[in-house]
Amino acid sequence: MAHLFDQTIRSAADGLKSGAFSSTELTKAYLSQIRGIDLSIHAFLDVFEGTALDQAHASDERRATGKTQGVLDGIPLAIKDNILIQDHRSTAGSQILANYRAPYDATVITKLRNAGSVFLGKTNMDEFAMGSSTERSAFGPTKNPRDPERVPGGSSGGSAAAVAADMAIASLGSDTGGSIRQPASFCGIVGFKPSYGSVSRSGLMAMASSLDQIGPMTKTVEDAAVLFEAIRGVDVLDQTTKDFGEVKYETRTDLKGVRIGVPRQAWGKGMTDGVREDAEAALKTMEEAGAELVDIDLPYADEALAVYYVLMPCEVSANLSRFDGMRFGQRETRPTLLETYQQSRGEGLGEEVRRRVMLGSYALSKGYYDAYYRQARKVQTLIRRAYSAAFENVDVIVTPTAPSTAFKIGEKLSDPLAMYLEDVYTVGANVAGIPAISVPCGTAEGLPVGIQFQGKMGGDGALLSIARVFEHVNL
Amino acid sequence: MALTREEIVRLADLSRLSLTEAEMKRMEDTIDRVLTYVGRLSEIDTTGIPETEGDLEVRLRTDVVQATPELERTAIISNFPDKVGNSLRVPGVFEKPKG
């Protein structure tokens, strides 16, 4: 059964095509892996033993009759629990949705179903995607497969751990401020946040609607591109999706002619020595592969975190107002309607969620709206302009993904601001809407370090092509 | 710029949230820290800078009534915290005592 593990989407697709194994064998192997090790990692909130095997059988039948849907047909995937899969539980890591049954498939799920994929189950996450460690899940934390005393990162920690521990060939996560990239970095896998508007958010429980994107978490950059192709596209159900045209991938074997922007704001203080060593080595590798390193100034980049922690809580406070215990979710009935709302939300929503809702209410309230929300929107314009200007002179911008390697469980829980600072390199891409990918670049004291590539809006193909070369030359 | 207990209580009220005494205390400290941090944005000169609009192109579509698929309907109804038959039951909005 060992030959069934250590697969990428590519290698598994080849194996299925050649008849080396069937999707049923592959799925059974991953389900048994989950049964064997997930008790200690807790990447999954729900495992779909029954339906996964049904999907695998259907895939094998299609293969037998020459009706394979493509490279993803029969491939077992894990899905973050804020993405709806019809008729299965979807909790977003929250107590308030502990018994919520998804009424419909997210668009990305419909697309993956049509592609013949197998859904192994739903993965653990920080509640409503609010967190950088998966410690804020109402159902207990996920452990980092590299070191179970450490966090896998967040909020897509379950999806990251599932792939890193080979409990799934690939997974989907969501990223609003770094929630795909940072856990990918902490767990030593690839995590890609596409350009805003590339992938439909229909069926993704909304955190900050102007920043959220679903994206792949995979073992290789090539796998990320395969999954991205399957899930992207304009969707009538999501008015924020855009037509970026055909995604242009480049066939390159080196980085000759590639200009890599190294923003001095990011490369100053704020990263640990271990991260710096590996990240600087990665830059050297890129140079050796033919890239030109360009020192750039990214004005206002230092303000992206503050902009994010104003805009995101504001949108969160609006998006989470639907969790009032009325039509779905936990309802705590009290003598008055107001108390019913307060208790339902007070008991069903965790502390970090309530903190961000309150921050948002504050920043949007009369007397503070201009100083906080409006000002943040203006600084966002300055940041977007800074990135656009930078991309006139460089092809990609590179920074470490996270300022540190995976920290210990409990280490940053008492200081929310310390936790928020984990996002310092990742939020820029969300605020600017641009695509960004984290690729493993080494280890520091045995823990994975990720390097982040950011591309221009709509330049996902070029970004993935460059990241792929780095991945290959860095081996 | 420290947030008073009164302000926290008002915020919780605005947000329709309940907090225990211990949570209230933690919120006072933590919300204040975050507001101080994001307050750095006020130092930035944004004269003449427009707010990011996003490039949303409003694509309206005709409102066509479609029957909800059975599976979807069953799931929606199963999620009702309280129901009478297939109808959602909610506390009366105009019941006394009013909150």
Task: Give a nutshell description of this structure.
The complex is a heterodimer of chains A (475) and B (99). Chain A is of the alpha/beta class and 475 residues long.
Which key features would you list for this structure?
heterodimer, A: 475 residues, alpha/beta, eleven-stranded mixed β-sheet, B: 99 residues, mainly alpha, 2 strands
Could you explain how this protein is built, in words?
- The complex is a heterodimer of chains A (475) and B (99).
- Chain A has helices at 9-18, 23-41, 49-64, 107-114, 157-164, 181-187, 221-231, 273-288, 304-319, 337-348, 351-364, 370-390, 416-420, 427-432, 460-473; strands at residues 44-47, 76-80, 118-123, 170-175, 190-193, 213-218, 259-263, 292-296, 396-400, 436-444, 447-454.
- Chain A is α/β, with parallel strands linked by helices.
- In chain A, strand 7 (259-263), helix 8 (273-288) and strand 8 (292-296) form a beta-alpha-beta unit.
- In chain A, helix 2 (23-41) packs antiparallel against helix 3 (49-64).
- Chain B contains 3 helices and 2 strands, in the order αααββ.
- Chains A and B meet through helix 9, helix 10, helix 11, helix 12 and helix 13 of A and helix 1, helix 2 and helix 3 of B.
